[in-house]
Each structure stands twice: as C-alpha cells, then as structure tokens.
Amino acid sequence: MLLKLKIWRQKRGQKKGSFENYEMDHLSPDMSFLEMLDQLNEDLVGQKKVPVAFDHDCREGICGSCSLVINGNPHGPHAGSAVCQLHLRSFKDKEEIWIEPFRAKAFPVLQDLIVDRSAFDRIIQSGAYVSVNTGQAPEAHSILVEKAKAEEAFSHAACIGCGACVAVCKNASASLFVAAKVSHLALLPQGKVEKKARVLKMVKQMEKEGFGACTNTGACSRACPKEISLHSIARMNREYFKSIF
Amino acid sequence: MKFFNHIPSGPLEQKWDRHCFELPLVNPANKRKHHIIVVGTGLAGASASASLAELGYQVKTFCIQDSPRRAHSIAAQGGINAAKNYPGDGDSIRRLFYDTIKGGDFRSREANVYRLAQISNQIIDQCVAQGVPFAREYGGLLANRSFGGAQVSRTFYARGQTGQQLLLGAYGALMRQVDKGGVRLFPRHEMMDLAVVEGQVAGVVTRNLLTGEIKSHFAQAVILATGGYGNIFYLSTNAMHSNASAAWRCYKKGAFFANPCFTQIHPTCIPRSGDHQSKLTLLSESLRNDGRIWVPKKSGDKRVPENIPEGERDYYLERIYPSFGNLTPRDLASRQAKFQVDAGKGVGPTGEAVYLDFKEALERRGKNFLSEKYGNLFQIYEKITGENPYEKPMRIYPAVHYTMGGLWVDYNLESTVKGLFVLGEANFSDHGANRLGASALMQGLADGYFIIPRTIARHLVERSSLEEKKVKKALEESVKEVQKRLDKVLQIKGGKTAGAIHRELGYLLWEYVGMLRNEKGLIQVITAIQGLKDQFWKELFIPGEQHYKNAELEKALRVADFLELAELMAQDSLERKESCGSHFREEYQSQEQEALRDDEHFCHVSVWEHTEGKKALLHKEPLEFKEVSLSVRSYK
Lengths: 245, 636
Ligand code: FES
Known about the structure:
The complex is a heterodimer.
Chain A (H helix, E strand, L loop, with lengths): L2 E7 L8 E7 L8 H14 L21 E3 L2 E2 L20 E7 L7 E3 L2 E2 L2 H8 L21 H11 L6 H5 L6 H13 L1 H4 L2 H14 L10 H5 L7 H14 L1
Parallel strand pairs in A: 1-5
Antiparallel strand pairs in A: 1-2, 3-4, 3-5, 6-7
Chain B lengths: L14 H8 L5 H4 L3 E5 L3 H13 L2 E5 L17 E2 L11 H11 L6 H21 L24 E2 L5 H19 L2 E4 L2 E9 L2 E9 L5 E5 L2 E4 L20 H8 L4 E2 L4 E7 L22 E5 L16 E2 L1 H5 L9 H13 L11 E4 L1 H7 L1 H19 L8 E10 L2 E2 L12 E3 L17 H23 L5 H23 L7 H15 L6 H21 L11 H25 L23 H4 L1 E6 L7 E6 L14
Parallel strand pairs in B: 1-2, 1-9, 2-5, 9-17
Antiparallel strand pairs in B: 3-4, 6-7, 7-8, 10-16, 10-18, 11-15, 12-13, 12-14, 14-15, 18-19
The complex binds FE2/S2 (inorganic) cluster.
FE2/S2 (inorganic) cluster binds next to loops of chain A.
C-alpha cells in the first residue's frame, strides 16, 4: 500500500518547525506504524538525509515512550492502545496521514517528534509514593486488601505515563495522570497514611509545571492507551477537598 | 589475572547472614562522603539507587530513556517468584533454591542461588508495603500461580503487568530520594566508558543523548544495572534501545565476561510477520498454565486448526514430558518447538509457529476466568495479529528474550574491576544455563534492594584512596577516547546503515548461535562475524552530527559493540563442548534429543578476559555442588 505522510520537523534548539511531505510505497498492511517510520528513516539515510527523530522503546504499549499525534489523535485512531501498537492495516491505501508531536506548554518540543515530559517525573517526585525505606516493610500478609479494591487500584496503577491525556486535552491538563496515581494509592491501605499530603503536593506541582485546569470534557480517558477511567479525577477532587478542609 | 568468588564459608543456610555480619559497616556520618554512580533504572538500578540513597550515600543515577520509569523491566509480564509457601503446597526456600539450580541445568553457584531464594520473601514484603497492587484472593490474601519448571504455585503477579508494577514501585522509591536530594538523576544519558585507575573504578564518561555533550563523573563505586544483550540478535523481545555497550566497555576496561553463550530463547512469542519486523513481542509463559501446545501429527498438514481432529493433533510437550507437560522449562519448550518446525509440522503462513490452544480451558473454566487471568495478553495478541484467541488457537514461536551470561561478579556482586558492581540481567550470577520464569524480577530486586546496599560497604571501607591527579587524568583520557571513537564512526562515509548491518548480524547469530549449535557452524560464523565487522568500519554511513539527538549514531555505536560481543558468544559456544540448558550443541545429545551435559569437563563458569589485540583469554571458575547432587535434569 501507499501512504502520504506529512511529518512535523523541528530542528533542535529552534522554536518553530513545519510539516514535510514524504511518500511511502509498497508497504505491508501487517507492518506496524513505527516500523513504517523505521523504513522511512532507513530510506532517508540512504539519501544522505537526516532521519526523523521520535521516542519509542518497548513497542508493546507499556513503557510510555512513544508519543505521536496521528491525524489529530494522540496514539492514533484506536482506543486503548499506544501508537507503537498501531498497524498499517488500520489505514486505507493512498491515505494522507499527519504526524505531529504531543503538544502542550508543559511538554516543549525538543526535536522533530520528541517532546520533554520531565514535568511528569517532577510530579511523581513531589509525593507519589508510600514512604517506606528498604527493609522496613512488615510481612506481606499482615496487610489484607479486598480483591475488588486491589483490582480497582491496579486499573489506575496501569498508567504508563505517556502524556496522551495532556496532549488531547484542550486545556493541556495533567489531571488524569495525577488522578490515576492518587487513586491507586488512596484505594490501598498502604497509601492511606500519606494520602492528604500526597494529593496536595501533587496538585501543587502539576499547577507549577504549567498544566491547565480540568473542565471535565473526558477526552483524556478516551485517548488513554490504558483506558484509565474518569472516576479517578472525581476521586482526586474528593481527596483534594477532604485534604484542605 | 587471579580472581576469587568470595563465597563465605560455613553451611549454605548461614552463609548470607554470616557474611552480612562480617561485612564492615560504614559510619552513618561517612556515608555522605561516598559518591556512587548507578547506570540503569530498571528493577535492579532503581531499587539500588533508592536503597543506597536511603542509607545516606550520594548517588548519581543515569538512564538512556527520557524517564527512569521506562526502563525495560517495565515490560515483564508474568510475575515474581518467592518462597512464601502461602498456598501451602509444599514450597520452601530450599525448594525454590533447588528448582532454580536444576532449572539452570547445574551451571550456577549454590551459594548465590540459595541467597536469592532466602531474600525472595523480603522482596514481596517490600513491594506490598510500597503499594504494588498484586493480585488478591477473595479473603484479601495474595494470590499465586505456577510457572514453568516448578510444581508449586509461588509466583506473585499483577495481571500480566507485574514488571510494570514492580518497576513503578521502585521508581517511586527512587523519585522519593531524588526529592530528598540523595539521588541526582540524569535521564537521556548513555554511559560511554569506565575510567579505571590501578584496577579500581574512578568514574564513568557519559553522553547526553539530546545535546551530544560528553562528560566525566567521578565516583568511588560504579553500579552497572544495564540489562542484557538479547538485542544482539536484532530480533528479540527486548526494547529497541536495550544494548550491551556499557557492559562491553567495562569488559574492555578489565571486567571479565562470563558464559556469554547462555542466551534464553523464550517459547511463547508472537511469530514474525515479515522482513519489516523490528522486534518481537512476548506473551507471558503463564499462558501455559491453561493453554495446550500442539502441532498436526502429519508434517505438511496445511488445514486450518478447526479442521484438524483431536486424534490428528500432537500435544508434544504433554507427550514427551508427562509430569510437567506444558509447563516444562523454557529451554526445553523452545527446542521442542524448533524440532516440530524443522520436521515440517510448523503452522501458520510462515510455517514457523506452533499452536497454543485455549479451547479446553474455555470449556472448562469459561471466558471470564480466562479474561481475568490473561485478558491483556489476549489483547496484545489480537492487536498484533488481528486474530481472536478466544476463537482461534494462538500461533507462537520462540524468540530471544533474556541473557543468562553477563559480566562476571563475585558473591558481593563485584566484578574483576575493584568497585565496579554489576546487578540484574547485566551480571551472570544466578540462572546458570537457563533461567526459570518469574525469576528475573526476583533477582533484579534482590540485587538492588537487599544485596548491594550491604556488600558495597567492604569496597568503600577497604578501597585504596586514589591520587586525585591520577583520577583526573584517567577521566580526561576516557573522555578523549570516547570522542575519538565518535569521530571514527562519524567519518566512515560508506552507504550502509547500522540497522542493515545489525540485521545481518542477527541472522547469523540466530542461525548458528541460536537454539541449535554445532562446531562447523560456529567456526564458520566467527569468520562471517569478522567479515561483517570489517564491513561496518568501511561501509557504514551515519547522517548528521554528534551535537543533537542522533539515533543513527547511537545505534551505530551499539552495533559496533554487538559485533565484538557476537564473536565472544560464538567462541564461548564453541569451547563449551557439551549441551546444557539453553546451550544445545547438536554433537552432544541423547537418542531422545535431550541435552547431554558433561560434568566432568564443563562443570564451570567460562570467564573471559579481554586482551588488547589478541584473542580473549578463557578462565574457568569451577562450580561445586555440595547440597544438590548433579543429576540429569528430567521433567518427564
Ligand atoms: S514504545 Fe513503549 S509504549 Fe509505545
């Protein structure tokens, strides 16, 4: 199959970039989207041109490295998957595809399709953990967790920290990311002790990083490769208000 | 050079406790004065960084990803073993120890493996306390499942994302220390060289992958937790950027490399779909708890699976290994799949696959049961192949997954360079010739949380203080060397990409140093690898320059190191004239195609020393078995 690609190119250190056109032919529909970009880069190198820079690593939807916006959708057209799990069989022959980096004030573009998401690390750093040093833990079975609670905590803990929620949000809010972690730990007995301080610190850091406010449009949850539910945001808000009053 | 494994004396059960007692302590006030570098932020690196900073050491932590949370441990699916014996099915520290020694086909150290089994229980406590959402039973207790090579249920899991949850726990602990100022974090930095003065580490040289900046960092101890070298095969289940370069640089600076030929080929991966394939995806072997593996009895049978009646199917693992059935260890399951395919019984469009069938489990336990246990694995499969495993049997085939070989370390996890410690998959220590499922996470965390924080003390207390002048000079020279290497690859103005050369290397290794190996092939492949290396240095082309994100440059440097390591792997395979675990030499097999170990001549670790301009030198560390008797590994 043939695809017409319009890819965002931006040199390192420059504030602006632009779309460039590339045409790829003889593609197999079984190829993954990132394998197509590999192929393009291989061709570009063959023509002594500079290949397109993009983040990726595991290519199975778990590391959260890949971060492309395809035709306006972070991670492409399918719900519940990262762009590294997208295959060309999802596109039509001769289709035009626009490829851009995740865009948000708090995620500056570094080069081509690579953005800086270190703001997420700083949010985690602010308090997204249980403070227990190595060797201080009690015997595992001294902490019982209701099965349903454990399952629910897991479904929030499944966040891969990719930032699609921010990229898709018209306010560039990181609420889903923060709320997923707040919920994961608030649901478990281990996270209870620090839950007030945790939510306050994380929300404060989120604001400091320049992420926008949440206006409940729900686009984040639909774009999330792990389908983290909007309930987490409601829970975060509850935890937040309980903490300030 | 002489080297010692420093295994403590005394009875097996008491070795670790005694050793901990005999190790010196570092005065709390002095800990701040010690600078430790950790390279890598997977389970081993993140847990080590956090634990050392908690104790008060000054830690600098480097990773190649944009965030420490993205290290490849994140992709581990199945679970983590521990000897808790919660199900009460007869497990114990001794049994976990025994299973691991046997699973490794008697090519690992008793003392190390016993310690691993002892520590396994503390790991679960630690992770639970951090809030890792392990699977639970209705009563709120932790749930367990079984894995290959074991007849008890000792694997703790968090759906099919155990590695992710454990890593996020360790990453949380790490970020907590970053916040407290105990750890300085350097993401998007790659270690390029190790600086050594008088056989002792002086620091590392790194390259900032965004700006290209090369810098040196001083340290009294360096901890390498950079993972395995499976990507040497081009196609593997490793993440795209997993590489051997940091370890290889250390090898060239005097750290010995052990058992490079022990590479694990995992039986349950999604088969490749064509030449465009960039990597392979694993499906946790926990699937073998409920899936049944089969091929058609007749070779060349091209009927769709639904049309092959029960009586014409060969559930070959159940037939050959009746007591372990589909849960035989990985090396056996992989090799048997290859035998079936080589006999023309492979299935699917490429003929390089076998079936993993859930029909019976679906009838017996229902769809809900399967989706709760394996839902995300089934989804991964469907996303990649477009087929629904509830309706059609999965097609699976072995793929390179893990490397048991790695830098040689003593009982303290210290390499032959003083002050260089190696953790997790990057070392060779615990898995012998074959690793059991759910043991990699256990080892990474044992090394990082519980072993290194104790064993590093001896080096810090007893190290000779190096002259500042010499340290400075060594670091400067290392920087120069790195720059020279960069200049050298950047100026080759050929026409081949590093990727193309890597693909050829991968093909050679898969064919000749893969699941089946023989003398003739190994001799041939060494020459072929050398040819490829010449080609690399003559015909490579890297576009762009050093001072921005240049993925082609990164790749080329890693491929250059893979080319050298590949030769050592082949050399090691050639020297090991026996079959054991993952290492199967066709000349050494029984009538039933089972591996024939030669304990008389090969009951040792093969330890390789780099020599400038000459062939690597082989040393042998004899393996002694006092607690278990060397026996033929039988799973029948
Ligand atoms: S590359 Fe890891 S999630 Fe996409």
